# Entry
Amino acid sequence: MAQRLIDAGVVGVVGHLNSGTTIPASRIYADAGIPQISPSATNPDYTRQGYKTTFRMIANDEQQGTALGQFAIDTLKAKTVAVVDDRTAYGQGLADEFAKAVTAKGGTVVKREFTTNTATDFNAILTAIKGAQPDVVFYGGMDAQAGPMAKQMKRLDIKAKLMGGDSMQTPEFIKLAGDAAESLYASACGLPRDKMPGFAAFNTKFQSKFNTEIQVFSPYEYDAVRVLVDAMQRAGSSDPKQYLAEVGKTDYTGVTGKVSFDAKGDINNGAVTVYQVKNGKWQVVSTVGGA
# Structure
């Protein structure tokens, strides 16, 4: 897809969805000198390749995993954790950072297990975890696996709380997990929507046009487009050779808040918010960082 976009003459890219696609595509865009802003990919490696074309709108997995690990130890008072990931660039990266943060805070990882991003049966993994009696089970992966995992944890009477990242903090997870979702935790990169300075107006316009629920990354996608347009306006050109340098100088306040980038292209002071399912809905617990 990346090469097809270049062949089509695009002058800027907002994407891709996840780290597994964003990272390999970034080399193609870098070779072509085309700015790429990801609204959703969180693996730290994306902006650590030395490319001048890569930018990120949200906190990365190092920030997210650290926030979750600290929350598990400081707020949930966990002493032991089990960690499971789906072996994707996103899932494994987030799980690694969570485990590092837990260890740094004095906690112990008593089990480290692996699955895939297509699995639905976790009984063998969960049975092994149950024997280790962790206080928290952390899953690095998508809601499609986290939902069934939560159900199976409840069926096996595992007392540990399940935690996950932004791909678990979705309405779909609650739908898939059913009543097993209640009281579980997950994070999302960015401020809660009611704290985003431009979300109310954005939501009103979005609903009037599309009449559907806003997806998790929609506000960041919108701001990413505006950041590219802002850079073009300041450069007086839509030619990537002319406006690329201006993207790195961004000082823009959009729907999601203040947007500026560090030398690697990561957003400065990226926020991470922890949520808990209460009465069948995600509710804000705490936020770290943010403008």
Remarks:
- The chain is about 40% helix and 20% strand.
- The mean pLDDT is 95.
- The first helix runs from residue 2 to 7.
